[in-house]
Amino acid sequence: MHKEIHTLILSPEDMGRIDRAAAASGLSSYGLMERAGQAVAAAALRRFPGARRFAVLCGPGNNGGDGYVAARALRAAGADVAVHALGDPAALKGDAATAHAAFAGPVAPLADYRAREGDVVVDALFGAGLARDVPDMVATVIEAVRGHVLPVLAVDLPSGIDGRTGQVRGAAFEAAATVTFMCRKPGHLLLPGRAMAGEVEVFDIGIPARLFAGHAGHMRINTPDAWRAAMPALTGAAHKYVRGHLAVFSGPATATGAARLSAMAGLRAGAGLVTVLSPAGALAANAAHLTSVMLKTVDNTDDLGVLLGDERLKTFVLGPGFGDASAARGYVERIAAAGRRLVLDADGISAFREDPKRLFALFSDGEPRLILTPHDGEFARLFPDLAGDPTLSKIERAQKAAARAHAVVILKGADTVIASPDGRALINENAPPWLATAGSGDVLAGIAGAHLTRGMPAFEAAAAAVWRHGEGGRMAGEGLTADDLINNLNGPDQIK
């Protein structure tokens, strides 16, 4: 499979257009279905060699057609196969009807399926195109399979998972594994779909890569291929100011740790010089813990204005443990007016909850130079309408927010989405669950700041930060603290 396609994420609508383009180009649509069904059968035999019976549940569309092909292949391999159909198989049309006819075996109604010990369920009821709640009969079967703790192999996506949003439509199978074709869909990567799809196999059924160019959108999986070329390489001529000067605003004396985590992460992630900007009352607390990070007093916008006179100070991180909403707004306005770059996190985001448009207007022109790093609650403070729209996927919320704010948005979570104002979006998948720990977000903000100050475009800077953050968590292992995470960041020029 072409490398670009391997990281591509397609909406169900885009995949449908590509399927139609493949058929229009002269490819046999039934040939594609045959390869898909054979791949499902091969996965079933490989993954479940001890199965006493394969219960193949076939739906009324092309996903059901894949199921009939798989059932025929399983039976030819000598497996015990029971096929149950949703709806009347005689009503099938097109390739699905051809697949049913080629199966030529008994097909019982779905309502007659009785789960029994030793069954492996091959779920070919609905694919990624499902956009409505499953029928009651399907929900009943899903519950019976769950009650008997039977393994499920899903075809394309577990039935009941919305392929566009990853949400459960009434009820859904929890699959041990899923076989999908050509590319993953948002439902494979967005929660809860990601958790319910199990291990996902992507099988190349033979659609040419050229057909994806005109029909695919701008969604990808976040891998180093998406941003490695934008990361500056270190050379013998580099010095600390070439690598960039990053400044991180500290909170008051009782809340300085978050800023120090961001600062140390920025230094470890590749910034040449990092300074903590501290209120006078917090200087002693910060000075007691800082060695390789510099320290400056900033108590008001006039103090900040003096620092902004140094053109080498390129990038700021504001928000971790900051606390003072009024001061945050004043500092952001000065940074924006000076044309500098900013990572706005945590309290910095919340500072604009009463007037988000005020923030967006500050960074509305030129190349994006603002990175927002909200979790769902912070996102709702800036974008309440998007957060409250149940029809939008997490990807769509992030894309719309990025366009509105003219900023790169890192919408955090176990399924973090990075979105650019131009519509590009990446979904991250390398983050382990133990990254959900105190200070983890502060570290992410510092990494993103380091990338910005080294000159990376905002989208690539954010995407690289999210990936390195996840990789650092994986290397640190379960039970990590934020300090462990910093100590396990790969050097920026050691990414393979």
From TrEMBL:
Which PROSITE patterns does the record associate with it? YJEF_C_3, YJEF_N
Its protein name is Bifunctional NAD(P)H-hydrate repair enzyme
Gene field: nnrD
Query: Matching InterPro entries, A to Z?
Result: CARKD (IPR000631), Nnr (IPR030677), Ribokinase-like (IPR029056), YjeF_N_dom (IPR004443), YjeF_N_dom_sf (IPR036652)
Q: Name one GO molecular function term.
A: NAD(P)HX epimerase activity
Residues annotated as domain YjeF N-terminal: 15-213
| CDD domains recorded | YXKO-related
Indicate the quaternary assembly.
Homotetramer.
SUPFAM superfamilies recorded: Ribokinase-like (SSF53613), YjeF N-terminal domain-like (SSF64153)
Asked whether the keyword Ribonucleoprotein is assigned, the reply is no
Query: Which cofactors are reported in the record for this sequence?
Result: K(+); Mg(2+)
